[in-house]
């Protein structure tokens, strides 16, 4: 079986047919499936979509016990943003994702910027993009994600061919790894962006 466009988060099961891993969708399994929008809804109260998965959390005044939201007077008193749990007789507010941490008030959740704390792991040719509660790895500027020799990789964008350069009308465009250069044509002077 050959899948011309590849199966990013799945496997090729027939000619151009992908079987997606759980949590992913699309012709080449390259899109995250928003489980929170599925019917029946996967969570009893609230749902937070994550890359390839989802997290459930309870409304204020409820406690997550064995995957179900149970009404709790003590939880309602604490006034947690995303529900709470009881640990050794003490009520603790919960955050629905590892990329979130309890704020100074101990009730609301604030985002952890994995990109600036160095917790994010991206390969050398990718840059980190922080999201609320998580992060993802994107190709460096001047590169694009392409399916080459049975895997996805970040490849150089040829700005001269795609016409995305800003060279002067009287300049030549020269492609470089991740960027481009402009050189004024013979008989013209300048930096390539301005030629006279």
TrEMBL record:
Q: Keyword annotations for this protein? A: Disulfide bond, EGF-like domain, Repeat, Signal
SMART domains in UniProt: EGF, EGF_CA
Q: Where is the EGF-like domain?
A: 32-70, 111-149, 156-194
Does the keyword field hold DNA-binding? Answer: no
Membrane-spanning regions, if any? none
User: Any idea which GO molecular function terms this record carries?
Assistant: calcium ion binding
Is the keyword Repeat in the record? yes
Tell me, what's a Pfam family for it? Answer: EGF_CA
Q: Which InterPro entries match?
A: EGF, EGF-like_Ca-bd_dom, EGF-type_Asp/Asn_hydroxyl_site, EGF_Ca-bd_CS, Growth_fac_rcpt_cys_sf, NELL2-like_EGF, Nephronectin_domain, NOTCH1_EGF-like
* Protein's name in the database: EGFL6 protein
Source organism (scientific name): Columbina picui
